[in-house]
Amino acid sequence: MESPHGAAVGAEDFGLKGPRGWVFRHVGFSAPPGSLVAVEGPSGSGRTCLLLALTGRMRATEGSARTGGLELPRKAAAVRRIAALGPVPGVSELDPAFTVAEHLRERALLQGRYGASLRTLLRPRAERRATARARIDTALEAAGLDTATLPKAERTSVRDLERLEALRLSVALALIGTPRLLALDDADLKLSPAERADAWALLRSVADSGTTVLAVCSEAPEDVQVVRTAPTTAEEAPAAPTAEETEETEEEESADAIAETGRA
């Protein structure tokens, strides 16, 4: 998939502190557009929170970061418009009761409604449907998901997908919006060594096409840029965000979404 304008991502002394202590701290790195960056660390070390902070979905409390030239957290809403989430538990999970086709149609519909220009919305319905189908096919190809090989093709339920197939579907859904940055959690979770190699090959392919990729993992390959979140001292042990913090983030995102809808 063509996405030649990937987003540069960087942070300096970046940190997030919750009521129970530091979630992550002292994160610093710089990645040019089209990079493949692995966010590595043990479970509970703040990997997911760092991913969400760099995509404008969680507010950090220390240091600075920029995504696509946009300062965080001040330009978080703008960052969310150029950054798409792949699979992130509790945030952008696939619905196991939906079929592959339902997921794809829903994402294409949302992209057509909120990501299209007024001129595009005024085109004939048949033309808009053809455009949406072409966008879906391009995203599926970029994610390496051949729906014809699935048990029931696009009518296959998500619950019947293998782990790697579900990962490819999530990536395809994210790429429908042609983002400058793709971020995904648990890229290597529950994958065999061979499947893990295939997953990283997929992410390298997306990055090679121009889209910057941030991927949380437990163990990164040797040939990717790595950002580590493991604490250096006992005092800096990470703490998960509280329910109150999560609710505040969701309220901010809802307000932004309402505002964007009003401007559409």
From TrEMBL:
<dbReference type="Pfam" id="PF00005">
    <property type="entry name" value="ABC_tran"/>
</dbReference>
<protein>
    <submittedName>
        <fullName>ATP-binding cassette domain-containing protein</fullName>
    </submittedName>
</protein>
<dbReference type="GO" id="GO:0005524">
    <property type="term" value="F:ATP binding"/>
</dbReference>
<feature type="compositionally biased region" description="Low complexity">
    <location>
        <begin position="229"/>
        <end position="243"/>
    </location>
</feature>
<dbReference type="InterPro" id="IPR003439">
    <property type="entry name" value="ABC_transporter-like_ATP-bd"/>
</dbReference>
<feature type="region of interest" description="Disordered">
    <location>
        <begin position="229"/>
        <end position="264"/>
    </location>
</feature>
<keyword id="KW-0813">Transport</keyword>
<comment type="similarity">
    <text>Belongs to the ABC transporter superfamily.</text>
</comment>
<feature type="domain" description="ABC transporter">
    <location>
        <begin position="9"/>
        <end position="261"/>
    </location>
</feature>
<keyword id="KW-0547">Nucleotide-binding</keyword>
<dbReference type="InterPro" id="IPR027417">
    <property type="entry name" value="P-loop_NTPase"/>
</dbReference>
<feature type="compositionally biased region" description="Acidic residues">
    <location>
        <begin position="244"/>
        <end position="255"/>
    </location>
</feature>
<keyword id="KW-0067">ATP-binding</keyword>
